[in-house]
Specification:
The complex is a heterodimer of chains A (303) and B (273). Chain A is α/β, with parallel strands linked by helices. Chain A contains eleven helices and twelve strands. The radius of gyration of chain A is 19 Å and the shape is globular. Chain B has one domain: Rossmann fold. The chains are: A alpha/beta (303), B alpha/beta (273).
Chain lengths: 303, 273
């Protein structure tokens, strides 16, 4: 991308020695590592964007969102500048490093900013498609980057468009709306339910803002059971966005709705990402359990 | 002191224009704007390579008013230079106006960055200066900081970045009037040794007495860059409310609202003395 688009500039803080080594070697004049100074880095990236560049700012998600929120709001979003925020370790990735490094509110923070686009790719391949698509996009983008090496989500390679909800499985009884690493889990659950004779839909909501209200409203209003799945606080993330749509009228007459995510707390545990996923009840078996419970409640309703 | 009636007249006109803008909004940071008038007049009359007919001209010099609350001064000088008509003054701080209590780049021709939240101008300035270097443009970037604003750590992060990237096309000017909103800079959060700080951060640093010898700033800025591969910092010793003796150093005038016509007349009279 950088080879084709001469305006692309890499701006890192102080993460990951060897990051984009090829970029650094081939295009040293567009490769900057500016130190542990997020407020400065964002302002500087805004200045570059004001001069026609397309800076990709790379650092750890918590520091890229919380530390320099004012700079992102005023310097980047207000002027709708083409800055790309590349947030490493979105969600619970840095579990062993503790709460300072857990980005569980990043989507809420970024969603609240006017002009910001929020992208949460489901896997590494989708990340690549998203970055390539961003070259043609006007305005700032927040990319939430996962750990890497997560299982790939089976989906059409060519079907990525910023702002589109990607329907991977058509729903009948129940629909999962998920993003990031939860998409793969949603598919696993859907496959399990299918073997039990239940048709579960899966929407990969890689773009959480702007929301694909057209597609979502259509599915939300025709599917009786909806569960949102996110590796994020239940406050202000994907679930909240869907809840708002439902509250505004996009709902099935007998609609039931559950949000599965991280409760309103600082995770007081370490371990690995998977340990925290388990701790917060976001494993496949938990989703299956909630789904079955919901389907039986629905039966009572419709009797 | 070198006597320069023409320069003094330009500064007096700018201060009067500031008051005319205030007449419409009846509020504003007048003392903060008065403090930097000499700096603005030197920059816009002699130094900045800008084109009011084409504010977006790529090769232009960039001026960022990082102390956005001083915008009355910026609005006065931009209007004087022809970036926009004085008709816009009527909308100062008004619902449909374009001249807000802090400047917005999308609304006001000639405003290079939206400021008001302190500590933003220098990081942006580094980005602008760096882009000019990358594109081999001769554009220079000037950033005017308030002294109280220098409490913000982002300035010092950016200062490290500026010297690391050897931005000799970047100039920091500090309006050092030694008063911030709560009180004197010595009491609130002392900046001294101020010039040494900038030197330690890799800036070629000089000081100018803007009260006695404001014209010296022109001489200094005419010789840019002051040092090869180093950014420049110029500490401008000023007085908050400069030009109106009763306002000078008077904390009541840091920000004032419900300003009456009588008060404006009083300031005008003081300026003429």
């Amino acid at each position: 991308m950088a080879k084709e688009n001469l305006d692309v500039v890499y701006v890192g803080s102080d993460v990951g020695i060897g990051t984009l080594k090829e970029f650094q070697e081939e295009m040293p004049d567009r490769y900057f590592v500016e130190g542990v100074a997020e407020a400065y880095v964002i302002g500087m990236a805004a200045g570059l964007a004001m001069s026609g560049k397309m800076p990709f700012v790379n650092t750890i998600a918590t520091f890229l969102t919380r530390r320099c929120y004012d700079q992102i709001a005023i310097d980047v979003c207000m002027g709708n500048h083409d800055v790309r925020l590349y947030a490493n370790g979105g969600g619970l990735v840095y579990a062993p490093l503790g709460p300072t490094h857990l980005a569980t509110d990043d989507i809420a923070l970024m969603r609240a900013l006017p002009n910001m686009t929020v992208i949460v790719p489901a896997d590494a391949d989708e990340m690549e498609r998203a970055v390539l698509a961003s070259g043609q996009h006007k305005g700032p983008i927040y990319f939430r980057v996962a750990r890497g090496g997560d299982p790939l989500v089976p989906q059409d390679d060519h079907d990525f468009k910023i702002g589109n909800a990607n329907v991977l499985r058509e729903p009948k009884e129940i629909l999962f709306v998920a993003a990031g690493i939860m998409v793969h889990r949603a598919i696993e659950v859907a496959d399990q339910l299918k073997s039990e004779g239940i048709q579960a839909g899966v929407i990969n909501l890689h773009t959480i803002k702007p929301l694909d209200t057209k597609t979502l409203s259509c599915y939300l209003s025709t599917t009786p059971n909806v569960i949102t799945l996110e590796e994020h606080s239940i406050i202000g993330g994907l679930g909240s966005a869907i809840a708002q749509l439902i509250a505004e009228g996009a709902r099935h007459p007998q609609g039931l709705f559950r949000m599965m995510g991280i409760p309103d707390c600082f995770p007081g545990k370490y371990g690995r990402q998977g340990d925290l996923i388990k701790y917060f009840g976001l494993e496949v078996k938990n989703v299956l359990e909630v789904s079955r419970q919901m389907l039986s409640e629905q039966k009572v309703l419709t009797v | 002191m070198i006597n320069n009636p023409e320069f003094d007249e330009r500064c007096l006109k700018t201060r009067k224009d500031i008051l005319e803008i205030v007449r419409f909004g009846k509020r504003g940071h007048i003392a903060s704007a008065f403090s930097m008038v000499e700096i603005l007049v030197v920059l816009y009359d002699y130094i900045l390579n800008v084109n009011p007919e084409n504010p977006e001209w790529l090769e232009r010099d960039r001026f960022i008013l990082s102390k956005g609350h001083g915008c009355l001064g910026l609005y006065a000088i931009l209007c004087d230079k022809g970036f926009f008509s004085s008709e816009l003054w009527k909308g100062f701080c008004a619902f449909d106006g374009v001249l807000g209590g802090h400047p917005t780049m999308e609304k006001v021709p000639g405003v290079e960055a939206s400021t008001g939240s302190l500590g933003h101008g220098l990081p942006i300035g580094v980005g602008l200066a760096l882009a000019a270097k990358m594109d081999k443009r001769n554009s220079r970037t000037f950033v005017l900081l308030g002294d109280g604003e220098c409490n913000e750590g982002s300035n010092w992060e950016a200062a490290m970045g500026a010297s690391k990237n050897q931005l000799d096309n970047l100039v920091v000017l500090v309006d050092y009037n030694k008063q911030q909103a709560f009180g004197s800079t010595y009491e609130v959060c002392d900046l001294e040794p101020f010039a040494d700080k900038w030197r330690a951060f890799g800036f070629e640093t000089l000081e100018v007495d803007m009260v006695k010898e404001p014209y010296n700033l022109k001489t200094l800025l005419s010789g840019l860059p002051l040092a090869e591969d180093k950014p420049t910092a110029i500490i401008c010793h000023t007085i908050k409310g400069m030009g109106a003796p009763f306002m000078e150093g008077n904390m009541d005038w840091h920000h004032k609202s419900k300003i009456t016509d009588e008060e404006i007349e009083k300031v005008l009279l003081a300026l003429e003395d």
